Amino acid sequence: MEYFLQQLINGLTLGSIYGLIAIGYTMVYGIIGMINFAHGDIFMIGAFVSLIVFLIVIGLGVTWIPLVLLIVLLVAMLVTSAYGWTVERLAYRPLRGSFRLAPLITAIGMSIFLQNYVQIAQGARVKSLPPVITGGYTLMEVDGFTVQISNIQIIIMIVTVVLMAIFAYIIARTPLGRAQRATEQDAVMASLLGINVDRTISLTFVIGAALASVAGLMFVLYYGVIDFYIGFIAGIKAFTAAVLGGIGSLPGAMLGGLIIGLIETFWSAYFSIEYKDVAAFSILAIVLIFLPSGLLGKPSVEKV
Amino acid sequence: MSSTDAGKQPAGRPILQVQGVDAFYGHIQALHGVSLDVHYGEIVTMIGANGAGKSTLMMTIFGHPRARNGRIIFDGWDITDEPTHHIARRGISLVPEGRRIFQRMTVLENLQLGAELAPDSHFDEDLAFVYSLFPVLQKRQNQRAGTLSGGEQQMLAIGRALMGKPRFLMLDEPSLGLAPLLVQQVFDALRQLNEEHNMTIFLVEQNAWHALRLAHRAYVLVNGRVTMSGTGKELLEKEEVRAAYLGGGH
Ligand SMILES: Nc1ncnc2c1ncn2[C@@H]1O[C@H](COP(=O)(O)OP(=O)(O)OP(=O)(O)O)[C@@H](O)[C@H]1O
Ligand SMILES: [Mg+2]
């Protein structure tokens, strides 16, 4: 039971990170009906920018950790958003209205480019960050087995909940959110009402990238090591989460992220750590076959 | 007397000029050198058979599809190649064919989207105005627009267009699917908007009888070409028009 509780905490932490990445997939799919295959690498960029800025800020002699984290967070969001914006401008916008597979090919190209670019610029070996946020709480202790929640886990969950709340508010209540939902449903009609559809789509990529950068920062803080390849693995899992939750559905992305995080953690804990990545892929295959519209997704055939 | 007499026709300064416009869908040409003018304060209607190109013309004014040849001038500005949302921001609203309301959003959200271009300070006033025209929308304001009846959706599409406080309102078959009583109500509302709020209106209608009686001037479109024009009254009296568009019965 204690072991189970401990895995639950670990799984929810991991799931929060996947959920934040999954939002980017689901939002972009919602608005342009296509998967952004470079999104996993945007997350990877976010992690690298976080790590580099972290080392720079520390190197400059700033030692108060909350301030350091705030600076890292802001810079990472800004820089990563710029990457997200660029992906849309280079890989998607020029090909809008061309055949459906074309932007997928360019996006995969972008993905490969980003991986190689980071590999060349930062080296192929893992980069590490010494633990910055340490400590935690022991929740219970039975027969020498302890259930712990670390401070970093608490931070990850709180940040995720706060971001989700802000984000849900933007989508549901602000003119930008309305413009996004309108563009999603009928882009031409949205433009007839004066909505700048190109800008709305750009902002969707930017918001997705900003959330992915936060996920990247938390990933660095949580695991302490990253390499140029993390975007691929985490990207596939977050994509699975988005599909599982119902691609296009925002609560679905978060739910899917949590489920994937939990499955992966329990799989490693109870079966074998070797095949933990296979678990995500198997789920993706099963969901696509039996539940193509996902848990919270809308059915693909809609009354017009 | 409900028909507009020609004497009240406003002085002619064009707000919209369409000059020799061609439009294509792929290789199919839908408009052939269409030219027409709408003047400030006028109600102008365009009648034509199914497939004549009426909806295409309205969408071409907004750049969907783009005019291939010719020019479109609005309020003195050449808008032929402007991005669609810029054209909208010049103060043109369209109630498009098929309504195109945002089904998965609430009635109120649809109206808010229509008001994206109007200053926030006007919002309450404009909303009250739309609700006074179509009280049913107020009752349904938090309902998903996709669950409205066809007629209610039509009212929402008109209300949404009005929320932008347009100077120039285009309507593509606004009476489609409405009960006769409501058709009368919509046409009365258009007349009221024109007379009391000085709104210029460009109208495409199946219901040629209603439209020609309402309009100051009218154009007839046949296979993508303007073949006739004149005051509403003149066209109503023309034998060809009566035979082709009024069922000869009136
Ligand atoms: N999206 C499209 N793709 C290809 N052809 C189209 C498209 N839309 C319209 N057309 C063609 O263009 C011509 C004009 O169509 P349009 O919809 O403008 O006619 P309309 O006068 O509005 O007819 P209706 O009274 O039936 O609404 C028709 O021949 C139609 O088949
Ligand atoms: Mg039509």
Note down, in words, how this protein is organized.
The complex is a heterodimer of chains A (304) and B (250). Chain A is mainly alpha-helical. Chain A has a single domain (2-290), classed as Orthogonal Bundle (ABC transporter involved in vitamin B12 uptake, BtuC). Chain A has eleven helices and four strands. In chain A, a hairpin with a 2-residue loop joins strand 2 and strand 3 (145-150). Chain A is globular and about 65 Å long. The termini of chain A are far apart. With 250 residues, chain B is an alpha/beta fold. Chain B is built from ten helices and ten strands. Chain B has helices at residues 54-61, 84-89, 107-114, 123-133, 135-139, 150-163, 180-196, 208-214, 232-237, 239-245, and strands spanning 14-25, 28-39, 43-48, 69-74, 77-78, 92-95, 168-172, 200-204, 217-222, 225-231. In chain B, the strands form two sheets. Chain B has a six-stranded mixed beta sheet with strand order 6-7-8-3-9-10, sandwiched between helices. The two termini of chain B are 17 Å apart. At the A-B interface, helix 6 and helix 7 of A face helix 2 and helix 3 of B. Bound molecules: adenosine-5'-triphosphate and magnesium ion (MG).
Calculate the terminal CA-CA distance of chain A, rounded to whole Å.
Answer: 50 Å
Structural class of chain A: mainly alpha
Shape of chain A: globular
Please name the CATH architecture of chain A.
Orthogonal Bundle
Coarse morphology of chain B: globular
Radius of gyration of chain A: 19 Å
Radius of gyration of chain B: 17 Å
* Strand arrangement in the largest pleated sheet of chain A: 1-4
Helix content of chain B: 25-40%
Tally of DSSP β-strands of chain A = 4
Round the mean pLDDT of chain A to the nearest integer and report it: 90
Question: What fraction of the residues of chain B are assigned to beta strands by DSSP?
Answer: 25-35%
Low-confidence stretches of chain B: 1-7
Mean pLDDT of chain B: 89
Main interface by residue count? A-B, 18 and 24 residues
Please give the CATH class of chain A.
Mainly Alpha
